[in-house]
Amino acid sequence: MSTKKPTITVLYFGAARTAIGVHSETVSLTITDDKGFPLSDLGLVLCKLHEGRGLKDVLNVSQWSVDLEMVEDPEKRFLVGGEEVAVIPPFKRLNPATTQTGHRWMQSMPSTLNANSLFQYTHSTTGFAPCFLRDLAKMTTTNVGGSRYYWLGNVPLVVVRVVAIIVGVDVWEQKSRILLDDGTALVQGSYRHVQELVDESDEQSKSQVGKSSRELPKRKQVRYVPRPVPATGTAVIVLGKPDGQRMKIDELTPCSYMEEAAHIIRVVDLHKTKYSQPFTLPESTSSGPHNMVPLAIPMTPPRRSREDGEDSEQDHDWTPRAKRHRRDDVELETPRPRQTGARAHSPAESVSSVASSAHSALLSPTKYLVPPLFPASTRSHLPSSTIQPLSSETSFGVSSNKASTETGLNTMARLRHPARRKGKDLNVDMFRLYVQYYIHTVHAHAHAQALAKRFHASSSSASTKGANCPPRRMETGGSSSRNGKLKTREQKERELFASDEERRGFALGYLRRVPELQEMAIRVVNQQRKTMRTTKRKKDEDVAETKRKDKEKAHDTRKYVKRLFIETTRTLYQQGAIVLHTGGARKWSREEAEWVNSLRIWKLKGDEDMSQSMDMSSRTLDISSTTLGDTTRVSGIAEGTDMVLSDLDEEEESYIPTSVDVLAQPVLLALRDALKRAKFNNAADARDRNAIAYKVQGVSEEDILESLHAMDDTWARVWDVGETLVYLENAGLTYLYKPGAWGVL
Known about the structure:
Strand order of the largest sheet: 2-1-7-4-5
Largest sheet: 5 strands, mixed
Number of helices: 23
InterPro entries: Beta-grasp_dom_sf (IPR012675), Mopterin_synth/thiamin_S_b (IPR016155), NA-bd_OB-fold (IPR012340)
Shape: globular
Region (Disordered): 198-221, 279-353, 379-403, 460-493, 529-554
Number of strands: 31
Number of domains: 4
């Protein structure tokens, strides 16, 4: 029999995962027998792969499961390839009173540490211990003064701070079970719902003893309202209490992925400098008052007095003070029951107030909801010295373009104004960079404005449908909306994706009418002529004859400028920076020129004052009122040359940049198609297809690109979809199943 080398997927749990530091891996097997590879020999293969990590001791006491079935006798089970094998170690809880490790930690406690100071330290913000999820299994417990404390190394704690990614949510009646993953372990957290006291139905009370409902005391019952939970795949900051290998979550706050990287660096440093060193109580805790932080919502109704002008408790529905969870600039608050009286607010006011604060976060560039300046596939061609970041003083706050101010596009890098470019920098590559920059920047601002309109439209429609309806049961894998409910996949796609009718492309005639680009193109053509003339002089040719020929060709400037624009768009298309657009094209007019000028996309000299910048821009870009047909003629930029342009062609091809918002919808379709194809790649017959279908949960970027190229020739030159997948992940449509494998929610 010939030797075969199939692959299997090995999943690690508990101590096995802690020992090697990975959740899963793909292992190649060497099969020389018709029966297959014996499961009993798999442990030797894994120990060789992870030699010196103590995996052998864990495997000796572990159990095996193959395709979700426990294996009683590994010697009788053979692997043929494609299986999913899980290593399941036994669960053991350490007892600090009987282990030497517990005695060592107890001995490291300072003699001055009493129960009162220990309680103050562990229940304060100073005592919150940043750690990894795998550290939860290593903690031990002690009882001091009747309170239970955990020990991470030599440091006592009650509350831990973890930065992880949500990989699953299961909503129960009184709590939500959230599956967290920080790259070191997979831990299940318990997130309790908010309790509310609501009036019980008075139908039974009205029929008793003939009394009216006003004469009978109102009875209340407890209702559990789920707290808003971020979408699957969102990075979150978790504050909670350890519970063995699980966790009781007190606070859950969305954060950026950069916060996760900073947390890892901080925890690694704390393990070296604090957790492994003898514990000393901070001076702020041992002497003086301390900032105590409550981590639970009080469930006792507060007493209200009539001296403050408020009604008694029986006249109002009591609602505990709900926690607020911040997602960047958005405040998500748990739903409250409808209030009565003068203090009640209309649904439109409640939704509009949250929508105004959510606007900037929804369009935050850090979440890729505003596309980056250039796609990664073409970013390598850009010279870094030409991009200058915008200073904090030059804010868009004084601009008339309100959408640019709210969307945070003032953080985008800007290029120097073309008029500030020296002659030695003027070449074809620099001109192509400026054309690409203009297309991407103008499209980014237009996309941000369209996204803002769709957001406000969805917020206003939500307010008219009754924001005070009782909350429905939350679903797994959705993102929270403004009123605490979860958005469906169709709603998220409708808000995120723009149709071809909403987008406007950039035609060649439009680009030739942009004053800055046209002026730069003329300067590039003149610089090329100057370079050619200098080269001819070096060859000792007749200077006078050269000047005469240059004067004869001066009337061809318009032809060379048009040729430069054509070659530039062709090169950008071949590089994948732009693609053909089937929708409408932008038209250059006075309104378009004023709007682009208000965006201040160019870096002017100094940028000291907005008025100076606008004056300089208006002097440099003189837009005449003379029109040709329905377009605006540009004058005052090339004196002595005939730069009169013909009318715009309505059927001229237009282009659109390959930014993440443009690629989002086709990449999502390509991802779904790749997942469908991957389910049947390793199948031999219909029975095997059914068995393998559930295993495929993620595909690589190469498979997505293959489906994208096969789907439409428009995307044949797109070779990078990494940023687009992150863009869809932050929108709650995709998730990273494992490194290099993407799935659809």
